Amino acid sequence: MIERSITLETGKTYTLDRYGFLDPPAQWDKDFAIEMAKRVGVAGDMTEEHWSFIRYLRSKFLEEKTVPVVVLACADNKLRLGKLRTLFPAGYHRGACKVAGINYDFMYKHNIWLTYESYRMLKANYEMTPMGFLKDFDRWDRQFAVLIASDWNLPNGLSDDHWRVICYVRDRFKESKDIPIVYETIRDLELTLGKLLDLFSEGYRRGVCRAAGLPFFP
Q1: Which residues pair with 5 in a beta bridge?
Q2: 10 in the same domain as 100
Q3: Contact by Cβ (8 Å): 203, 217
Q4: For 27-67, how does the pLDDT look when each residue is reduced to its tens digit (9 = 90+)?
Q5: 67-89 as b/e, with b when 16 or more CB fall inside 10 Å?
Q6: CA-CA distance, 129 to 113, in Å (whole number)?
Q7: Same domain? 20 vs 105
Q8: For 138, which DSSP code?
Q9: Is the dihedral of CA 26, 27, 30, 32 positive or negative?
């Protein structure tokens, strides 16, 4: 279960979005950053290297209304990717950006790839749309779904229940060339909506359909 708030010993509470990112981001302060750093695996107190990178991210976020992709962020700060991983073991998106108080929806809106740290492997092996969906339904394979799910914080990866949903929507789309609506899916698979969302925290379209290689219809 993803936490929806953080309460410090001082009694101050910060609200989080459905993915555990600070929301609204205006709540951010150094106390939040220190507490979140502990929660994303930063060992010990944050050093000046940590704070310098956080200040950089916040400057980009607040002044330029953007978040640079990880390669540019490292270049601007003269950091190697390996060094960034040492500073923020949870990674760029789920580590540094989380500590910097940048919320998930902002990153998704401004750059879909910020929310998927497996982007380079996806891009190297699959042709993707700008929204991050597979361009060709027939080019899908199980590895594609595994890569999509790699950012979902699943402790044991995709389960049999995940695969049952993914295979169902693929079979339905193959037959009709139409995406089954969510209520058809939960009815036919005898699931509740809550159970489906427990399995796919990204939701039906960005979770189930994307992992299944279905197209994105605006």
Answers
A1: 15
A2: yes
A3: no
A4: 999 999 999 999 999 989 999 999 999 999 999 999 988 88
A5: bbebeebbeeeebeeeebeebbe
A6: 11
A7: yes
A8: G
A9: negative
CB-based contact 102:57 (threshold 8 Å): yes
pTM above 0.85, yes or no: no
**How far is 123 from 105, CA to CA, in rounded Å?**
22
Match 């992992």 to its residue by tokens: 211
End-of-domain residue from the set 114, 139, 164: 114
Residue 74 domain flag: yes
Neighbours of 62 (CB within 10 A): 14
Residue 217 lies in a domain: no
Is residue 142 in some structural domain?
A: yes
Number of domains in the chain: 2
Long-range CB pairs of 33-37 (<8 Å, 24+ gap) are: 33/99, 33/100, 33/101, 35/6, 35/8, 36/6, 36/98, 36/99, 36/101, 37/99
Q: Is 216 part of a structural domain of the chain?
A: no
For residue 78, give every residue at least 6 positions away whose Cβ sits within 8 Å of its Cβ, in sequence order, or none.
Answer: none
